[in-house]
Design brief:
- This protein is α+β, with helices and mostly antiparallel strands.
- The chain has three domains: about 30-70 and about 75-330 and about 370-400, no CATH class; about 415-515 and about 595-725, no CATH class; about 730-835, no CATH class.
- It has helices at about 5-20, 35-55, 80-85, 105-120, 155-160, 260, 270-290, 330-335, 345-360, 410-440, 445-450, 450-475, 480-520, 565-575, 580-585, 590-620, 625-640, 645-650, 660-680, 690-715, 805-815, 825-835; strands spanning about 135-145, 180-190, 195-200, 210-225, 230-240, 245-250, 320-325, 370-380, 385-390, 405, 760-765, 775-780, 790-795, 815-820, 825.
- The strands form three sheets. Strands 1, 2, 3, 4, 5, 6, 7, 8, 9 and 10 form a ten-stranded antiparallel β-sheet that branches. It has a three-stranded antiparallel β-sheet with strand order 11-12-13, with no helix packed on it. A two-stranded antiparallel ribbon has the order 14-15.
- Helix 12 (about 450-475) packs across helix 16 (about 590-620).
- The relative contact order is 0.08.
- The protein binds 2-acetamido-2-deoxy-beta-D-glucopyranose (5 copies) and zinc ion (ZN).
- One 2-acetamido-2-deoxy-beta-D-glucopyranose (NAG) binds near residues 46 and 90.
- One 2-acetamido-2-deoxy-beta-D-glucopyranose binds near residues 46 and 90.
Length: about 850
């Protein structure tokens, strides 16, 4: 049996997902050789020494506008003047012989100053900004080239970093922005526990406002939209000057000792002093720690790769980035400072109040929190390009506002709200499902519900549960709401599983029957299969191959109200002539059998869900347009969930299986989270709103609901060509006397009026109420369920069907129901019976659901 392995595989995969989702990013990774680590630390120690021993102005590379170096004659002493003019640092990437694009350093510094001035004004009168930059921002950038282009062939990596084995240094480097425009997302982590550089070293009480500089780190995502289409994520380290609202961050790698040279890239001496003092201290501490644990802690603390344990031995070259970020002043209207008090101190005080309230909510005031806005200038000294954020004054407001986003607290609040909303939505789905289960509790109603529609809902709930559970593992601030989602989706999953199991129990015999029929079609020589009652169905494929019963079975009229006893009697008395109950002559599925079959199905569902989860995780790193296409297709497939139900309605010829409340409620609830990501511009996942895709998906769902409605009103097979579907059993057939050969007349009506039995009274057309010439005889019979008289119009032999198409005829036919085993009952009686059992009350043969 395959299912135990299936389950084992699934459980293994689930464990793998949990492990993937919960494993910390800072694991030790692969164990690199200790000498490798020691060498790296020695290089970094040396770099720190360089940083400690240099001063402002020690890095003064030759600039573009400088006159070309005079040709010094071979062997002669270098010109003392140029020696003094151009200064380089003995740091990897900062040396003259490395040939990085430092001739544009002054341009970078000018741009930084210009962008700061645009944002907050000149340094002397700079406006106060947020002191805590922790948050997420995003926006568009525009590329500018350096004065001389750089290619990967411009560099000799083995000369720049002699001790490092580079992988793929002869191909284009990664993170190489090639398009003219693209997107950028920055996640700044401005930690209050980070090392800081106080205003005055010996001040005893350190006030936050008195800080000169603070260490900061950030994660940048650069989307090269117009160029390669790829997106790169990188980790940046640097310094934040809270008073000025400026940050300088850089990547660090084996070919660029960015963090050690960072103070030399600042724009002002003041920035240089504070950052050098700060970095001297903090880098020393970090190196000390690393030197003590060369074996257990091999991660380079300043690496820009988020996940690459192999980086230590075989790094791949990538472009280096230097980010200058300027935080923008807050919207004065939202700040709520009184007009008379708009001095910088008052504004700073107001900002301080907002930040305190955000971090430690006291419930004071409910004001709108201004957004977090930054502008950035990015310089890549090795790949030779600038990325500048788009916004005023160079661009209009509509074209871009530099980088806009929210502070961390607001971001987390948004996430929590979304997750809570999700919990409510899943709770609503659960309630709808419970109500629907109460309504469809009988075999005949369960038989109408599509198993696959249920499967799709269960699959979605299960994936939500897995996602929420994995999220809860690592969530801290959003733990409670995500636990709520986990619980509700678990409940929803359990109830859904139960519902599916019920549906399965009812529909399983039908599937087996289909399988048998398929088998029989494959082996047409099954003429001996006369005992199978199904052969007598007017199915076009089977009627031709099966012989008819030689004679009509005897008339069976029940004698008392005890249906069960009658059934027992009937089955024992007429075993020879009546078809035996299905359950007797085919392999009955035991409960055990059913269960394994069901767990097989659930195992398969689990595997599908896990595959989709893995694929979606992988999709996160795909090109944006492919990723968008993938998610659009996935959602389209998910929200096609009524399609199997529509098919089943057609197949079973039933008008409506699920209540309108369930269909519409589920559709709306399942569409809502999708709508959040597709329509809301400021959604927390920063998904680009895509109204067109959403309209297509919502329209498709809307169309499915309309088709369900049309099926309910116009009939399930409305618009479906005849012959596409196996004919469903017609419970209200036109009865004809000359149709005896097909066994067409129900038991009890077979005898002709010329030889009436004692139990059957026949009135011919003249005696009937209608005085007109009539083609029908009305046969009268007792209904086995209610024992009342049942009048059945039967078309006389050779006569035209007078009621063809007539409403009266249709209504007359609606009064009685004929089962496949050719028993006839009042419609109301049999329908009532079928709500509880899908078996013929007389012979216990299985009945097709309505
Ligand atoms: C930096 O240099 C000074 C002397 O110039 C020395 O006292 C100090 O220990 C050095 N700091 C580090 C971290 O190397
Ligand atoms: C630069 O540093 C290296 C060690 O990394 C050292 O061997 C070399 O002598 C230094 N060069 C200068 C000019 O100081
Ligand atoms: C790169 O540098 C190494 C070591 O300095 C040298 O041996 C090699 O010839 C250089 N390669 C090129 C292409 O210049
Ligand atoms: C970056 O891309 C440009 C344009 O495709 C290319 O010419 C250049 O060589 C690349 N730079 C590096 C370092 O790979
Ligand atoms: C800034 O806010 C974040 C989020 O509340 C907090 O974790 C961090 O410590 C704060 N940083 C400072 C410097 O206050
Ligand atoms: Zn009846």
């Amino acid at each position: 049996m395959p299912q135990p392995q299936d389950n084992a595989r699934a459980i293994f995969l689930i464990l793998l997902i949990f492990w993937l989702a919960t494993s910390p990013d800072s694991g030790p990774g692969l164990i690199a050789g200790p000498t490798l680590i020691k060498n790296r630390l020695a290089r970094q120690r040396h770099a720190l020494g360089v940083l400690n021993s240099t001063q402002w102005g020690d890095f003064a590379p030759r600039l573009v506008d400088d006159p070309p170096e005079p040709e010094t004659p071979e062997g002669s002493e270098p010109d003392a003047e140029t020696e003094a003019k151009y200064k380089y640092l003995n740091l990897t990437g900062f040396r003259e012989e490395d040939h990085y694009a430092w001739e544009d350093l002054q341009r970078f510094r000018d741009r930084c100053d210009e962008w700061s001035a645009n944002a907050v004004g000149i340094p002397e009168t700079a406006q106060p900004v947020w002191q805590n930059a922790t948050g997420v921002v995003r926006g568009w950038w525009q590329k500018a080239n350096t004065s001389t282009p750089r290619y990967h062939s411009s560099y000799n990596l083995s000369a720049i970093s002699p001790n490092v084995q580079w992988a793929g240094s002869n191909s284009d480097w990664s993170r190489n922005a090639t398009g003219a425009e693209g997107k950028m997302m920055l996640r700044v982590e401005d930690d209050e526990n980070a090392e800081t550089e106080p205003e005055e070293i010996d001040k005893i009480v350190l006030d936050k406002a008195e800080l000169k500089a603070r260490e900061v780190s950030a994660t940048a995502t650069i989307d090269d939209v117009e160029g390669t289409g790829s997106s790169w994520e990188m980790r940046l380290h640097g310094v934040h000057w809270p008073r000025q609202g400026a940050m300088l961050l850089t990547t660090t790698s084996e070919k660029f000792q960015g963090i050690f040279g960072l103070p030399h890239l600042t724009t002002r001496a003041e920035f240089f002093e504070s950052s050098q003092a700060l970095l001297n201290r903090t880098l020393d501490k970090a190196l000390d720690r690393k030197e003590q644990h060369t074996f257990t802690d091999q991660i380079d603390p300043w690496t820009s790769n988020l996940d690459a344990p192999g980086e230590a031995w075989n790094p791949t070259p990538h472009c280096e980035y230097v980010f200058y970020i300027q935080i923008h002043p807050l919207d004065q209207d939202l700040l709520g400072v009184q007009p008379s008090l708009t001095g910088p101190e008052n504004v700073a005080k107001a900002i301080q109040d907002i930040e305190d309230e955000l971090r430690f909510p006291q419930g004071t005031g409910h004001r709108k929190i201004p957004q977090l806005q930054m502008s950035a200038v990015v310089f890549s000294p090795d790949c030779g390009f600038f990325l500048e954020t788009k916004g005023p004054p160079a661009f209009t407001h509509a074209e871009g506002l530099h980088l806009v986003g929210v502070k961390q607290e607001i971001f987390l609040h948004n996430v929590s709200t979304f997750i809570l909303g999700l919990a409510l939505i899943v709770f609503g789905q659960l309630q709808l499902l419970k109500i629907q289960m109460r309504e469809t509790s009988t075999p005949s109603t369960l038989g109408r519900v599509s198993f696959y529609t249920g499967c799709m809902m269960l699959l979605a709930d299960g994936m939500l549960f897995t996602g929420a559970a994995a999220w809860s593992f690592s969530a801290s601030t959003t733990l409670l709401p995500s636990l709520a989602v986990t619980c509700v989706s678990f409940l929803s999953m359990t109830v859904g599983t139960f519902f599916l199991a019920e549906i399965h129990k009812v529909q399983e015999p039908e599937w087996r029957r289909q399988e048998r029929e398929r088998e029989r079609q494959n082996t047409p020589a099954t003429t001996t299969n006369t005992t199978n009652p199904l052969n007598r169905r007017p199915s076009p494929t089977t009627t031709t191959t099966t012989p008819r019963p030689a004679a009509s079975p005897p008339i069976i009229i029940p004698s008392d109200q005890d249906i069960d006893a009658e059934i027992a009697e009937a089955t024992t008395n007429n075993n020879a002539t009546l078809p035996a109950p299905v359950t007797a002559n085919t392999a009955t599925p035991t409960a055990q059998n059913l269960r394994t079959q069901l767990s097989n199905i659930f195992g398969r569902l689990l595997l599908i869900g896990i595959c989709i989860l893995f694929l979606s995780l992988a999709a996160a790193s795909w090109r944006p347009n492919i990723r968008a296409a993938y998610f659009n297709i996935l959602l389209f497939a998910y929200l096609s969930l009524w399609v199997p139900q529509i098919y089943r309605n057609v197949y079973r010829n039933c008008r409506r299986a699920l209540s309108w409340r369930f269909v519409i409620g589920q559709s709306i609830l399942r569409l809502l989270p999708v709508a959040y990501f597709y329509i809301v511009p400021g959604n927390f996942a920063f998904a680009e709103p895509d109204r067109v895709a959403f309209l297509v998906i919502a329209g498709w769902l809307w169309l499915q609901i309309w088709i369900l409605a049309a099926q309910s009103v116009l009939g399930p097979r409305f618009g479906v060509p005849k012959g596409w579907m196996p004919e469903a059993w017609e419970y209200h057939p036109v009865l004809r006397e000359d149709n005896v050969e097909a066994g067409g007349l129900p038991i009890g009506l077979v005898s002709t009026p010329t030889s009436p039995t004692s139990l059957e009274r026949v009135r011919t057309g003249d005696e009937a109420r209608d005085k007109k010439k009539s083609n029908t005889n009305t046969h009268v019979i007792d209904c086995a369920i209610c024992r009342e008289v049942l009048e059945v119009p039967v078309v006389k032999a050779g006569a035209e069907d007078p009621t063809a198409g007539g409403v009266a005829g249709v209504l007359a036919r609606r009064a009685y129901m004929v089962t496949p085993c050719r028993h006839i009952f009042h419609s109301a009686c049999l329908e009532g019976w079928m709500r509880f059992r899908l078996q013929c009350p007389i012979c216990r043969e299985e009945l097709p659901p309505l």
